[in-house]
């Protein structure tokens, strides 16, 4: 009569324990608890922890109760994938933890495609929080990527020219202030200033890059309503030769000389003007590195970092075939100037909860966790990218921490966000978390959801917990990498064991308690958006 019957499919012992402690009875799925249930074994310590906190009922009584409700309708359904439930058979009073068609923002190609429509929904600009991205299976996007790569090379050449001349890239670089990097290891973000082997490139190369950037700046000032330049820049440039010279300068250290103070000032002034039009000018660095991702894979599988255009096109050569599946690969600008902790790259897993799509209702979790790489960050070491550039737990667990690793870096590669806040305070950036990082992540989450809102199948009574992955630039600006449906609740460390249990507990507070009593506590969840 109270409709307290639930079903759980998948490795979620925490949800089971929490619902039982609330007086709910489980209607077990056929085969539950048999040979196929081994994925739950790594959650045992997590469940025991909750049993101590909540108190667990008698097993025999629970078994008898489950038998009594085996033919009853479950009113709360939690599964690890949307397809586990036939939505056509659901009753209005059944609560399910998934929405349909969320691939519009939880797949790499979906996020890449749909964020472009965000300016139509308000003043938000996806270029301020999502590194520019292209689906290489679509011919028009492949051509747009090629043009972007070339333009980035031209801008990068101007940056390198100024850098080697000992100039500061005013308005384009946002390094920590002096004293903010206490304890941090020096990191090879850029190539040395000294010229490497081989003869210097033509002195006309900088002038050529200046001309390309002037044309691009002019086109940025005359965009159409979709944000695309009305006329393509870079006309008349021999790009094969230009890129080969660019590779020699940036990747091989060939000499590059400015013709004089006037050209130096032209480079500086042009980059400053471009910085007002291109929000990603700072984070893109000067190596022109892009990250190539298979569109349908997760946990870092198949990802490579590439710094040469011809290699990108070679790796995805199948995408150029007429019958190639659109969206098979995506290529995204790599954040070359990330915020580092003791010379090491990290990203952050940030949970959020959607309880309605019409009106769109979004809850943001105040606790999150960092995932560190096991090797020091370096742009000189791209292949393979896993140990230095990909922070996924499933990847980093294969590597032992590097010798000489800073002693304050965690051996299990994870921190909670409070440890990050403490570190930022120690290096003189105490306000960054609450003033820059959290507001930026909230805006990115809401922007991504609004761009896909019309594509998701809304259903009253459903909800869904997501995990967004962010990286921060040197200026602490967050950059959204991807959004995951059914984020893992498998604890990989003491930090995640505590936080994964907490976010599940607080999710139930929002989707069960809050619906009946809006004055009840919602744990660490904060309502950040409701249309």
Automatic annotation (TrEMBL):
Major subcellular site: cytoplasm
Classification via InterPro entries: TTL/TTLL_fam, TTLL_monoglycylase
Species of provenance: Himantopus himantopus
The reaction(s) this protein catalyses: L-glutamyl-[protein] + glycine + ATP = glycyl-L-glutamyl-[protein] + ADP + phosphate + H(+)
Name of protein: TTLL3 monoglycylase
Cross-referenced Pfam families: TTL (PF03133)
Compositional bias of kind Basic and acidic residues: 37-54
Classification via SUPFAM superfamilies: Glutathione synthetase ATP-binding domain-like
Location of the protein in the cell: Cytoplasm, Cytoskeleton, Flagellum axoneme
GO biological process, one term: cilium assembly
